[in-house]
Design brief:
The structure holds 2 protein chains of 2 kinds.
Chain A (H helix, E strand, L loop, with lengths): L7 E6 L1 E2 L4 E2 L2 E3 L5 E4 L2 E14 L7 E10 L4 E7 L5 E3 L4
Antiparallel strand pairs in A: 3-9, 4-5, 5-6, 6-7, 7-8, 8-9
Chain B lengths: L1 E5 L3 H7 L10 E3 L14 H5 L8 H7 L4 E3 L3 H17 L4 E5 L2 E5 L1 H7 L2 H12 L6 E5 L2 H10 L5 E3 L5 H5 L11 H9 L5 H5 L3 H19 L16 E11 L2 H16 L9 E10 L9 E12 L2 H12 L6 E11 L14 H18 L5 E5 L11 E5 L3
Helix pairs in contact in B: 1-4, 5-6, 12-13
The chains are: A mainly beta, B alpha+beta.
Chain lengths: ~90, ~400
Protein backbone atom coordinates (compact mmCIF):
# COMPACT_ATOMS: atom_id res chain seq x y z
CA UNK A 1 0.00 0.00 0.00
CA UNK A 2 1.32 3.46 -0.85
CA UNK A 3 0.98 5.93 2.00
CA UNK A 4 0.00 9.51 1.38
CA UNK A 5 3.28 11.43 1.41
CA UNK A 6 1.49 14.60 2.45
CA UNK A 7 0.16 12.97 5.59
CA UNK A 8 3.01 13.42 8.00
CA UNK A 9 1.45 13.82 11.39
CA UNK A 10 2.67 12.69 14.75
CA UNK A 11 0.90 12.82 18.05
CA UNK A 12 3.11 12.32 21.03
CA UNK A 13 1.72 11.90 24.47
CA UNK A 14 4.02 13.37 27.05
CA UNK A 15 4.44 11.45 30.26
CA UNK A 16 5.31 12.73 33.70
CA UNK A 17 8.75 12.18 35.09
CA UNK A 18 9.00 11.13 38.75
CA UNK A 19 5.38 10.06 39.12
CA UNK A 20 4.59 8.97 42.72
CA UNK A 21 4.47 5.20 43.20
CA UNK A 22 2.35 3.54 45.88
CA UNK A 23 4.45 2.44 48.85
CA UNK A 24 3.69 0.21 51.79
CA UNK A 25 4.46 2.34 54.83
CA UNK A 26 3.86 1.63 58.47
CA UNK A 27 3.72 4.86 60.46
CA UNK A 28 4.12 5.58 64.14
CA UNK A 29 1.55 7.48 66.24
CA UNK A 30 2.93 10.90 65.16
CA UNK A 31 2.73 10.00 61.47
CA UNK A 32 6.45 9.42 60.84
CA UNK A 33 7.28 6.27 58.86
CA UNK A 34 8.67 3.24 60.78
CA UNK A 35 8.79 0.74 57.92
CA UNK A 36 8.90 1.41 54.17
CA UNK A 37 8.11 -1.61 51.96
CA UNK A 38 8.80 -3.92 54.91
CA UNK A 39 12.23 -2.40 55.58
CA UNK A 40 12.81 -0.61 58.87
CA UNK A 41 13.53 3.12 58.90
CA UNK A 42 16.89 3.89 60.52
CA UNK A 43 16.65 7.68 60.38
CA UNK A 44 14.23 10.41 59.31
CA UNK A 45 16.56 12.96 57.74
CA UNK A 46 14.05 15.61 56.83
CA UNK A 47 10.36 16.33 56.88
CA UNK A 48 8.38 18.95 54.95
CA UNK A 49 4.87 19.68 53.76
CA UNK A 50 3.56 20.70 50.37
CA UNK A 51 0.21 22.45 50.09
CA UNK A 52 -0.57 23.50 46.55
CA UNK A 53 -3.43 23.85 44.07
CA UNK A 54 -5.83 24.44 46.93
CA UNK A 55 -7.85 26.58 44.53
CA UNK A 56 -8.55 23.61 42.24
CA UNK A 57 -10.71 20.51 42.57
CA UNK A 58 -7.56 18.43 42.98
CA UNK A 59 -5.59 20.06 45.78
CA UNK A 60 -2.15 18.72 46.68
CA UNK A 61 -1.70 18.10 50.41
CA UNK A 62 1.41 16.08 51.11
CA UNK A 63 3.64 15.37 54.08
CA UNK A 64 7.06 14.34 52.82
CA UNK A 65 9.75 12.38 54.68
CA UNK A 66 13.28 11.79 53.50
CA UNK A 67 14.36 8.61 55.30
CA UNK A 68 17.37 6.33 55.49
CA UNK A 69 16.37 2.68 55.58
CA UNK A 70 18.13 -0.03 57.54
CA UNK A 71 19.60 -1.29 54.27
CA UNK A 72 21.33 2.09 53.88
CA UNK A 73 19.04 3.18 51.05
CA UNK A 74 17.94 6.82 50.94
CA UNK A 75 14.31 7.28 49.91
CA UNK A 76 11.56 9.88 49.93
CA UNK A 77 8.00 8.96 50.86
CA UNK A 78 4.94 11.10 51.41
CA UNK A 79 1.49 10.74 52.87
CA UNK A 80 -1.25 12.07 50.62
CA UNK A 81 -3.51 14.17 52.82
CA UNK A 82 -6.10 14.70 50.06
CA UNK A 83 -6.61 11.20 48.69
CA UNK A 84 -5.01 9.17 51.47
CA UNK A 85 -2.25 6.59 51.12
CA UNK A 86 1.51 6.53 51.08
CA UNK A 87 3.73 7.00 48.03
CA UNK A 88 7.42 7.00 47.28
CA UNK A 89 8.82 9.52 44.87
CA UNK A 90 12.09 10.34 43.20
CA UNK A 91 13.26 13.85 42.44
CA UNK A 92 11.57 15.35 45.50
CA UNK B 1 -15.27 28.39 -16.77
CA UNK B 2 -14.41 29.36 -13.23
CA UNK B 3 -16.23 27.41 -10.54
CA UNK B 4 -16.75 28.45 -6.95
CA UNK B 5 -17.49 25.86 -4.30
CA UNK B 6 -19.21 27.43 -1.34
CA UNK B 7 -20.09 26.06 2.09
CA UNK B 8 -21.96 28.77 3.99
CA UNK B 9 -21.37 28.82 7.76
CA UNK B 10 -18.43 26.47 7.43
CA UNK B 11 -16.85 27.35 10.79
CA UNK B 12 -20.11 26.61 12.61
CA UNK B 13 -20.57 23.34 10.74
CA UNK B 14 -17.01 22.32 11.62
CA UNK B 15 -17.55 23.18 15.29
CA UNK B 16 -20.85 21.25 15.30
CA UNK B 17 -19.23 18.07 14.00
CA UNK B 18 -18.38 17.19 17.60
CA UNK B 19 -21.94 18.01 18.75
CA UNK B 20 -24.22 17.09 15.81
CA UNK B 21 -27.42 17.21 17.88
CA UNK B 22 -27.07 21.00 18.10
CA UNK B 23 -27.44 21.48 14.35
CA UNK B 24 -31.20 21.00 14.68
CA UNK B 25 -31.48 23.45 17.58
CA UNK B 26 -31.06 27.25 17.64
CA UNK B 27 -27.29 27.58 17.84
CA UNK B 28 -24.71 30.13 16.75
CA UNK B 29 -20.96 30.41 16.67
CA UNK B 30 -19.90 32.36 19.75
CA UNK B 31 -17.76 35.47 19.31
CA UNK B 32 -14.03 34.91 19.79
CA UNK B 33 -12.64 35.94 23.17
CA UNK B 34 -11.47 39.56 23.14
CA UNK B 35 -13.26 40.41 19.90
CA UNK B 36 -16.42 42.43 19.28
CA UNK B 37 -19.42 40.49 20.68
CA UNK B 38 -20.94 39.66 17.28
CA UNK B 39 -22.35 36.25 16.43
CA UNK B 40 -20.81 34.10 13.73
CA UNK B 41 -22.89 31.85 11.45
CA UNK B 42 -26.18 30.51 12.85
CA UNK B 43 -28.18 27.31 12.34
CA UNK B 44 -31.42 27.21 10.36
CA UNK B 45 -33.40 26.82 13.62
CA UNK B 46 -31.76 29.96 15.01
CA UNK B 47 -32.50 31.84 11.82
CA UNK B 48 -36.14 30.76 12.06
CA UNK B 49 -36.18 32.17 15.60
CA UNK B 50 -35.06 35.57 14.30
CA UNK B 51 -31.31 35.33 14.99
CA UNK B 52 -29.05 36.57 12.21
CA UNK B 53 -25.31 36.19 11.64
CA UNK B 54 -23.27 39.20 12.90
CA UNK B 55 -26.07 40.09 15.33
CA UNK B 56 -24.95 41.51 18.68
CA UNK B 57 -24.77 38.83 21.34
CA UNK B 58 -27.13 40.61 23.75
CA UNK B 59 -29.71 41.25 21.04
CA UNK B 60 -29.52 37.62 19.86
CA UNK B 61 -30.05 36.22 23.36
CA UNK B 62 -32.95 38.60 23.92
CA UNK B 63 -34.50 37.48 20.61
CA UNK B 64 -33.99 33.78 21.28
CA UNK B 65 -33.26 32.96 24.96
CA UNK B 66 -32.72 29.25 24.21
CA UNK B 67 -29.92 30.06 21.74
CA UNK B 68 -26.89 27.80 22.30
CA UNK B 69 -23.50 29.43 21.78
CA UNK B 70 -20.96 27.11 20.20
CA UNK B 71 -17.29 27.79 20.96
CA UNK B 72 -15.28 28.37 17.77
CA UNK B 73 -12.94 25.50 16.92
CA UNK B 74 -10.58 27.11 14.39
CA UNK B 75 -8.14 24.20 14.33
CA UNK B 76 -10.90 21.68 13.55
CA UNK B 77 -12.28 24.03 10.89
CA UNK B 78 -8.86 24.44 9.24
CA UNK B 79 -8.33 20.69 9.33
CA UNK B 80 -11.75 19.92 7.83
CA UNK B 81 -11.28 22.56 5.15
CA UNK B 82 -7.84 21.19 4.29
CA UNK B 83 -9.42 17.73 3.89
CA UNK B 84 -11.98 19.13 1.44
CA UNK B 85 -9.38 21.06 -0.58
CA UNK B 86 -7.15 17.98 -0.76
CA UNK B 87 -10.08 15.87 -1.82
CA UNK B 88 -10.74 18.36 -4.67
CA UNK B 89 -7.06 18.29 -5.61
CA UNK B 90 -7.08 14.51 -5.59
CA UNK B 91 -9.99 14.68 -8.07
CA UNK B 92 -7.80 16.73 -10.40
CA UNK B 93 -8.90 20.30 -9.65
CA UNK B 94 -6.30 22.99 -9.14
CA UNK B 95 -7.83 24.83 -6.21
CA UNK B 96 -7.46 28.39 -5.00
CA UNK B 97 -8.79 28.28 -1.43
CA UNK B 98 -9.96 31.86 -0.87
CA UNK B 99 -11.00 31.25 2.75
CA UNK B 100 -12.78 28.75 4.93
CA UNK B 101 -15.75 27.48 2.95
CA UNK B 102 -14.90 29.20 -0.37
CA UNK B 103 -12.74 27.64 -3.07
CA UNK B 104 -12.28 28.52 -6.73
CA UNK B 105 -11.06 26.31 -9.51
CA UNK B 106 -10.97 26.31 -13.30
CA UNK B 107 -12.87 23.54 -15.02
CA UNK B 108 -11.14 23.79 -18.40
CA UNK B 109 -8.42 21.28 -17.60
CA UNK B 110 -10.72 18.61 -16.19
CA UNK B 111 -13.81 18.89 -18.41
CA UNK B 112 -12.40 16.36 -20.87
CA UNK B 113 -11.40 14.06 -18.03
CA UNK B 114 -14.96 13.86 -16.71
CA UNK B 115 -16.80 14.25 -20.02
CA UNK B 116 -18.07 17.81 -19.79
CA UNK B 117 -18.64 20.74 -17.47
CA UNK B 118 -21.54 19.34 -15.50
CA UNK B 119 -20.00 15.93 -14.75
CA UNK B 120 -16.81 17.72 -13.64
CA UNK B 121 -18.76 19.95 -11.26
CA UNK B 122 -20.70 16.94 -9.96
CA UNK B 123 -17.38 15.24 -9.27
CA UNK B 124 -16.24 18.33 -7.33
CA UNK B 125 -19.43 18.30 -5.27
CA UNK B 126 -18.92 14.61 -4.52
CA UNK B 127 -15.32 15.31 -3.50
CA UNK B 128 -16.53 17.89 -0.97
CA UNK B 129 -18.79 15.28 0.65
CA UNK B 130 -22.48 15.36 1.44
CA UNK B 131 -22.10 16.38 5.08
CA UNK B 132 -21.25 20.00 4.35
CA UNK B 133 -24.17 21.03 2.09
CA UNK B 134 -21.74 22.39 -0.46
CA UNK B 135 -22.97 24.11 -3.60
CA UNK B 136 -21.19 25.19 -6.76
CA UNK B 137 -21.58 28.18 -9.00
CA UNK B 138 -19.78 28.43 -12.33
CA UNK B 139 -19.35 31.38 -14.65
CA UNK B 140 -16.77 33.00 -16.89
CA UNK B 141 -15.62 35.29 -14.10
CA UNK B 142 -14.75 34.81 -10.48
CA UNK B 143 -17.30 37.13 -8.89
CA UNK B 144 -20.13 35.83 -11.03
CA UNK B 145 -19.18 32.28 -9.97
CA UNK B 146 -19.25 33.34 -6.30
CA UNK B 147 -22.64 35.02 -6.80
CA UNK B 148 -23.98 31.87 -8.47
CA UNK B 149 -22.70 29.70 -5.62
CA UNK B 150 -24.26 31.99 -3.03
CA UNK B 151 -27.75 31.66 -4.54
CA UNK B 152 -27.47 27.92 -5.31
CA UNK B 153 -29.19 25.49 -2.97
CA UNK B 154 -27.27 22.81 -1.02
CA UNK B 155 -25.95 20.20 -3.44
CA UNK B 156 -26.95 22.29 -6.49
CA UNK B 157 -24.82 23.29 -9.48
CA UNK B 158 -25.60 26.65 -11.01
CA UNK B 159 -23.90 27.55 -14.28
CA UNK B 160 -24.19 31.10 -15.59
CA UNK B 161 -23.26 31.53 -19.24
CA UNK B 162 -21.38 34.67 -20.30
CA UNK B 163 -24.35 36.19 -22.09
CA UNK B 164 -26.55 35.72 -19.00
CA UNK B 165 -24.22 37.28 -16.43
CA UNK B 166 -25.73 40.78 -16.52
CA UNK B 167 -29.29 39.49 -16.16
CA UNK B 168 -28.27 37.01 -13.48
CA UNK B 169 -26.44 39.54 -11.28
CA UNK B 170 -28.96 42.39 -11.62
CA UNK B 171 -31.55 41.25 -9.01
CA UNK B 172 -28.98 40.05 -6.44
CA UNK B 173 -28.44 42.04 -3.20
CA UNK B 174 -25.48 44.32 -2.64
CA UNK B 175 -24.36 42.25 0.35
CA UNK B 176 -22.51 39.95 -2.07
CA UNK B 177 -20.00 42.73 -2.63
CA UNK B 178 -16.94 43.00 -0.39
CA UNK B 179 -17.82 46.39 1.07
CA UNK B 180 -17.74 47.90 4.53
CA UNK B 181 -21.02 48.18 6.39
CA UNK B 182 -21.20 51.96 6.09
CA UNK B 183 -20.80 51.73 2.32
CA UNK B 184 -23.88 49.48 2.08
CA UNK B 185 -25.78 51.97 4.21
CA UNK B 186 -24.61 54.83 2.01
CA UNK B 187 -25.72 53.01 -1.15
CA UNK B 188 -29.04 52.06 0.42
CA UNK B 189 -29.62 55.68 1.38
CA UNK B 190 -29.12 56.53 -2.29
CA UNK B 191 -31.76 53.97 -3.22
CA UNK B 192 -29.26 51.43 -4.61
CA UNK B 193 -30.19 47.99 -3.26
CA UNK B 194 -29.41 45.57 -6.09
CA UNK B 195 -26.29 44.80 -8.08
CA UNK B 196 -28.08 45.77 -11.29
CA UNK B 197 -28.84 49.25 -9.96
CA UNK B 198 -25.18 49.77 -9.04
CA UNK B 199 -23.98 48.41 -12.37
CA UNK B 200 -26.29 50.83 -14.18
CA UNK B 201 -24.59 53.88 -12.65
CA UNK B 202 -21.69 55.62 -14.43
CA UNK B 203 -18.37 54.22 -13.13
CA UNK B 204 -16.74 57.63 -12.74
CA UNK B 205 -19.60 58.93 -10.58
CA UNK B 206 -19.44 55.85 -8.31
CA UNK B 207 -15.67 56.22 -7.91
CA UNK B 208 -16.05 59.91 -7.08
CA UNK B 209 -18.73 59.23 -4.49
CA UNK B 210 -17.44 56.00 -2.88
CA UNK B 211 -13.71 55.97 -3.65
CA UNK B 212 -11.63 53.01 -4.89
CA UNK B 213 -13.69 50.42 -2.94
CA UNK B 214 -16.84 51.69 -4.59
CA UNK B 215 -15.24 51.58 -8.02
CA UNK B 216 -14.18 47.98 -7.41
CA UNK B 217 -17.67 47.08 -6.22
CA UNK B 218 -19.13 48.70 -9.33
CA UNK B 219 -16.77 46.68 -11.52
CA UNK B 220 -17.79 43.47 -9.70
CA UNK B 221 -21.46 44.31 -10.08
CA UNK B 222 -20.85 44.31 -13.83
CA UNK B 223 -19.33 40.82 -13.61
CA UNK B 224 -15.80 41.65 -12.44
CA UNK B 225 -12.51 41.54 -14.28
CA UNK B 226 -11.50 38.38 -16.06
CA UNK B 227 -8.66 36.70 -14.21
CA UNK B 228 -7.34 33.19 -14.16
CA UNK B 229 -7.53 31.07 -11.04
CA UNK B 230 -4.11 30.12 -9.75
CA UNK B 231 -4.17 26.82 -7.92
CA UNK B 232 -2.42 26.78 -4.60
CA UNK B 233 0.80 24.94 -3.90
CA UNK B 234 -0.23 22.11 -1.57
CA UNK B 235 1.16 22.73 1.92
CA UNK B 236 4.01 20.54 3.12
CA UNK B 237 2.09 19.60 6.20
CA UNK B 238 4.46 18.37 8.84
CA UNK B 239 2.70 18.23 12.16
CA UNK B 240 3.98 17.62 15.66
CA UNK B 241 1.65 17.47 18.64
CA UNK B 242 2.31 17.19 22.32
CA UNK B 243 -0.49 16.03 24.58
CA UNK B 244 -0.17 17.05 28.22
CA UNK B 245 -1.08 14.81 31.13
CA UNK B 246 -3.11 17.73 32.52
CA UNK B 247 -4.23 21.15 31.28
CA UNK B 248 -1.39 23.68 31.23
CA UNK B 249 -2.08 27.38 31.70
CA UNK B 250 1.34 28.60 32.76
CA UNK B 251 3.00 30.52 29.92
CA UNK B 252 6.54 29.57 30.94
CA UNK B 253 5.63 25.90 30.97
CA UNK B 254 4.02 26.29 27.54
CA UNK B 255 7.15 28.00 26.22
CA UNK B 256 9.24 25.03 27.26
CA UNK B 257 6.78 22.61 25.73
CA UNK B 258 6.83 24.72 22.54
CA UNK B 259 10.61 24.40 22.50
CA UNK B 260 10.33 20.61 22.67
CA UNK B 261 7.75 20.49 19.86
CA UNK B 262 9.81 22.82 17.63
CA UNK B 263 12.94 20.68 18.13
CA UNK B 264 11.09 17.44 17.38
CA UNK B 265 9.42 18.91 14.27
CA UNK B 266 12.73 20.22 12.93
CA UNK B 267 14.36 16.84 13.54
CA UNK B 268 11.83 15.03 11.35
CA UNK B 269 13.45 13.34 8.35
CA UNK B 270 10.81 14.81 5.97
CA UNK B 271 12.10 18.30 6.81
CA UNK B 272 15.70 17.38 6.02
CA UNK B 273 17.70 20.19 4.34
CA UNK B 274 14.65 22.36 3.91
CA UNK B 275 13.91 25.60 5.75
CA UNK B 276 10.69 26.64 7.36
CA UNK B 277 8.90 29.60 5.81
CA UNK B 278 5.46 29.40 7.41
CA UNK B 279 4.34 27.76 10.66
CA UNK B 280 1.02 27.34 12.43
CA UNK B 281 0.72 26.95 16.16
CA UNK B 282 -2.46 25.37 17.44
CA UNK B 283 -3.84 24.18 20.75
CA UNK B 284 -6.70 22.06 22.00
CA UNK B 285 -8.18 23.94 24.91
CA UNK B 286 -9.69 22.78 28.16
CA UNK B 287 -13.50 22.81 28.33
CA UNK B 288 -14.87 26.17 29.33
CA UNK B 289 -18.10 27.16 31.04
CA UNK B 290 -20.03 27.41 27.79
CA UNK B 291 -19.22 23.77 27.20
CA UNK B 292 -17.45 23.61 23.86
CA UNK B 293 -13.83 23.07 24.72
CA UNK B 294 -12.62 24.25 21.35
CA UNK B 295 -9.27 25.08 19.95
CA UNK B 296 -6.95 27.93 19.05
CA UNK B 297 -4.69 28.47 16.04
CA UNK B 298 -2.30 31.13 14.78
CA UNK B 299 -0.22 31.10 11.63
CA UNK B 300 3.04 32.94 11.17
CA UNK B 301 5.23 33.57 8.14
CA UNK B 302 8.87 33.94 9.11
CA UNK B 303 10.68 36.99 7.76
CA UNK B 304 13.44 34.71 6.55
CA UNK B 305 13.14 30.92 6.10
CA UNK B 306 14.92 29.21 8.94
CA UNK B 307 15.72 25.81 10.39
CA UNK B 308 16.99 27.31 13.62
CA UNK B 309 14.85 26.12 16.51
CA UNK B 310 15.67 29.17 18.64
CA UNK B 311 14.54 31.61 15.96
CA UNK B 312 11.27 29.78 15.40
CA UNK B 313 10.69 29.57 19.14
CA UNK B 314 11.34 33.30 19.60
CA UNK B 315 8.95 34.10 16.76
CA UNK B 316 6.17 31.88 18.11
CA UNK B 317 6.50 32.39 21.87
CA UNK B 318 4.62 35.75 22.04
CA UNK B 319 1.57 34.03 20.50
CA UNK B 320 1.29 31.81 23.57
CA UNK B 321 0.22 34.87 25.57
CA UNK B 322 -2.90 35.04 23.37
CA UNK B 323 -4.18 31.63 24.49
CA UNK B 324 -7.65 32.11 25.96
CA UNK B 325 -7.72 28.95 28.15
CA UNK B 326 -5.44 26.22 29.55
CA UNK B 327 -4.05 23.84 26.95
CA UNK B 328 -4.52 20.07 26.68
CA UNK B 329 -2.53 19.63 23.50
CA UNK B 330 -0.04 21.83 21.70
CA UNK B 331 0.34 21.38 17.96
CA UNK B 332 2.92 22.78 15.58
CA UNK B 333 2.51 22.62 11.82
CA UNK B 334 5.35 23.38 9.42
CA UNK B 335 3.05 24.69 6.72
CA UNK B 336 5.52 25.87 4.11
CA UNK B 337 9.06 24.66 3.56
CA UNK B 338 11.60 26.02 1.09
CA UNK B 339 13.45 23.87 -1.40
CA UNK B 340 16.81 22.50 -0.20
CA UNK B 341 18.61 24.97 -2.47
CA UNK B 342 16.87 27.88 -0.73
CA UNK B 343 19.94 28.72 1.36
CA UNK B 344 23.67 28.31 1.33
CA UNK B 345 24.68 25.42 3.60
CA UNK B 346 27.95 24.62 5.32
CA UNK B 347 30.15 22.11 3.54
CA UNK B 348 30.71 20.14 6.73
CA UNK B 349 28.31 20.86 9.60
CA UNK B 350 29.99 20.99 13.01
CA UNK B 351 29.39 17.84 15.07
CA UNK B 352 27.52 16.16 12.23
CA UNK B 353 29.37 12.88 12.69
CA UNK B 354 28.60 12.65 16.41
CA UNK B 355 24.97 13.45 15.75
CA UNK B 356 24.65 10.88 13.02
CA UNK B 357 26.23 8.18 15.24
CA UNK B 358 23.93 9.11 18.09
CA UNK B 359 20.84 9.04 15.90
CA UNK B 360 21.89 5.71 14.41
CA UNK B 361 22.27 4.30 17.94
CA UNK B 362 18.84 5.61 18.89
CA UNK B 363 17.36 4.18 15.71
CA UNK B 364 18.66 0.73 16.65
CA UNK B 365 17.27 1.03 20.17
CA UNK B 366 13.89 1.96 18.73
CA UNK B 367 14.01 -0.88 16.25
CA UNK B 368 14.52 -3.39 19.03
CA UNK B 369 12.20 -1.87 21.65
CA UNK B 370 9.44 -0.30 19.56
CA UNK B 371 8.07 3.17 18.80
CA UNK B 372 7.91 5.55 21.75
CA UNK B 373 10.70 3.84 23.66
CA UNK B 374 13.18 6.69 23.23
CA UNK B 375 12.20 9.85 25.05
CA UNK B 376 13.58 13.32 25.68
CA UNK B 377 13.19 14.83 29.13
CA UNK B 378 11.85 18.37 28.89
CA UNK B 379 11.87 20.55 31.95
CA UNK B 380 8.58 22.41 31.86
CA UNK B 381 8.20 23.81 35.38
CA UNK B 382 11.43 23.35 37.34
CA UNK B 383 10.19 25.81 39.94
CA UNK B 384 7.19 23.67 40.87
CA UNK B 385 6.87 22.32 44.40
CA UNK B 386 5.22 19.17 43.04
CA UNK B 387 8.04 16.95 41.71
CA UNK B 388 6.04 15.15 39.01
CA UNK B 389 5.07 18.42 37.33
CA UNK B 390 8.65 19.66 36.90
CA UNK B 391 9.53 17.64 33.82
CA UNK B 392 7.86 15.67 31.06
CA UNK B 393 9.26 12.94 28.91
CA UNK B 394 8.41 13.31 25.27
CA UNK B 395 8.69 10.31 22.91
CA UNK B 396 11.06 10.85 19.96
CA UNK B 397 10.63 8.85 16.80
CA UNK B 398 12.95 10.88 14.55
Amino acid sequence: MVTDSRDARALRTAGRLNEPRPARVEASFDGTPRHVNHVGVALVREEWRVLDRWWTEEPVVRRYFEVVLETGENTVVFHDGAGGGWFSQRGA
Amino acid sequence: MIACLSIPGFELKAALRARPSLSLRPAALAPEAGREPLLGPVTAAAEAAGVRPRMRLGEALATCPQLVLVDPDPAAAELAWEEIVRSLEDAGFSVDAAGLGIAYFETRGVERLYGGLEPALKRALAAAGTHWDARIGAAGRRFAALAAASVAKPGQLLVVRDDEVGRFLAPLPLTLLPLERQRYDELEALGVRKLGQLAGLPGGAVAERLGPDGRRAWSLARGGASARVRGRRPPAELVESLEFPEAIGNELTLRRALGAVVDTALARPERRDRFVRKVALGARLVHTGSGGGGSWRRTLTLREPSADGDRIRIALAPRLAELPAPVLELRLELVELTEPSGRQLELLAAGAEDRSRLSEGLRQVRASTGSGSVCTVVEVAPWSRIPETRALFVPRDD
